[in-house]
Design brief:
The protein is mostly helical and 457 residues long. The chain contains 17 helices and seven strands.
């Protein structure tokens, strides 16, 4: 059976859904299509399939059991406990679930920013209040760092622990710093190993730590970390599981992360870091030259980014943990420029620095406006909720979300109250839908200006 549905204001794109195998073909006559929604229409509108398709034909066969989709439950458990009073209040007041999302992201952001505050305090103690002030200025002028601080990702939970580790490192509590990184590596993001390795090697070569004491301390932290994550996640996922081990095997050993796209070796240095650091990018290089102490702190972090560049699949969130140290190095340079601003040559550098910081603020404003429109599947789910004829008296509507949709703006927080229910699409469920009928709804970039219509098949 083949369903042909034409559903846009301009009625230009031809969208075709071949039911068997869930193949979706998309011919783009214009570039204004943002995504597609799919849901099943059964006798009572129950049992549904929702997926966002973008740019090219794909086969909808994602599963919540894929190793790369596993997320450690420890961080989610902690954030949930802290956010639970607000979430309970929103439920009692019958507020939309979106308010629960605000609560969760505020809690997560508070955790991450508190660890950044700890790092900032140690910078102040070691390098002075002026360097600390420029560290704050550079940090708040960057869009991506603050944007990621509230995103519920394993990278961000690891980022919080790495910030603690940086603080302990600057404080001189080196074993505590190593323990924080071990916990972050084994519980939240195995790729932090690429950071702890050069840092540990540097500490050993400079005789800052004892090899045997560091080994016993890290082993104790490792056993505790593995025990906690296996205990909690085995209960959550209902099977014996160490999430980061499976993620490491999937991404590094099997190298299947490349299936999500690849970038050239230099991408972090020519794209990710310039966009995220902005004014701090040239300043951190200057900081290394102006203060010999900075090189000791930059070397492990720079090695981390270089090592990660070997992995073909690259994302900014993978190296987000490096940004605070780069900002610190940039703050050292900014402080030196400020102190020498009255000297003839330094005055031009100081004026250039002010221009860079203002440019960073302008870029941050642009990034903010762009990111606001960057979640097409969120708009798609919102449009689905507004389908005419669906009322509170309708039977339960189950919307199944594939991985691509979940990566582009849909979460359980976005679902409306009854009758809507959302869940991640499972392969077994997809296989059982081979004999169902579907309606197709395209979502345009100008969704708010283009009322949606449904042409029945």
């Amino acid at each position: 059976m083949r369903l042909n549905v034409l559903v846009t204001k301009r009625k230009n794109p031809l969208l075709t859904c071949l039911q068997k195998g869930f193949w979706v073909e998309l011919w783009r006559q214009e570039t204004d299509i943002k995504g597609l929604l799919f849901w099943e229409k059964a006798k009572s509108w129950s049992g549904s399939l929702c997926s966002l398709i973008k740019d090219m034909p794909i086969i909808m066969e994602n599963s919540c059991t894929d190793p790369d989709l596993l997320v450690c439950g420890l961080g989610a458990l902690l954030v949930s406990i802290l956010a639970s009073p607000v979430v309970l209040l929103t439920n009692l007041l019958h507020l939309p679930k979106l308010y629960s999302l605000y609560a969760v992201r505020l809690v997560l952001g508070g955790i991450v920013l508190s660890t950044l505050r700890f790092f900032r305090i140690q910078i102040k103690k070691k390098f002075g209040s002026q360097v600390e002030a420029f560290f704050v200025i550079l940090t708040v002028s960057q869009f991506h760092l603050l944007f990621y601080c509230t995103r519920p990702l394993p990278n961000i939970l690891a980022f919080a622990l790495v910030n603690l580790a940086y603080g302990f490192w600057f404080k001189g509590s080196l074993y505590a710093a190593l323990n924080c990184m071990v916990f972050a590596t084994l519980v939240f993001r195995c790729d932090i190993l690429l950071l702890i390795a050069p840092l540990g090697l540097e500490l050993l070569l400079t005789k800052s730590v004892s090899f045997w004491k560091a080994l016993t301390s890290c082993l104790a932290a490792a056993f505790l970390s593995i025990g906690l994550t296996v205990l909690v996640d085995s209960v959550i996922w209902k099977r014996l599981l160490w999430p980061e081990l499976e993620v490491f095997w999937f991404n590094s050993v099997l190298n299947k992360s490349s299936e999500w796209g690849t970038h050239p070796f230099h991408w972090y240095f020519t794209s990710a870091l310039p966009r995220s650091l902005l004014a701090a990018y040239p300043l951190f290089l200057l900081g290394v030259l102006l203060d010999r102490r900075v090189f000791f702190y930059i070397l492990p972090v720079l090695s981390f980014v270089l090592l990660y560049s070997k992995l073909p699949h690259k994302e900014l969130r993978f190296i987000i943990s490096s940004i605070p140290v780069f900002n610190f190095a940039a703050a050292v340079a900014a402080s030196r420029l400020y102190n020498n601003r009255k000297k003839s040559f330094w005055k031009f550098l100081y004026i250039a620095m002010l221009g860079f910081i203002l440019g960073s603020l302008a870029c941050t404003a642009v990034f903010f406006m762009a990111s606001y429109k960057n979640y097409p599947s969120g708009y798609a789910l919102k449009a689905l909720h507004r389908i005419r004829g669906v009322t509170k008296n309708s039977d339960e509507l189950r919307v199944h979300i594939d991985t691509f949709s979940a990566m582009n703006g849909i979460s359980r927080f976005c679902e409306y109250n009854y009758p809507w229910r959302t869940a991640i699409l499972d392969r077994r469920l997809a296989q059982g839908m081979n004999h169902k009928a579907f309606i197709i709804l395209p979502i345009q970039t100008s969704l708010q200006h283009a009322p949606l219509q449904i042409l029945q098949t």
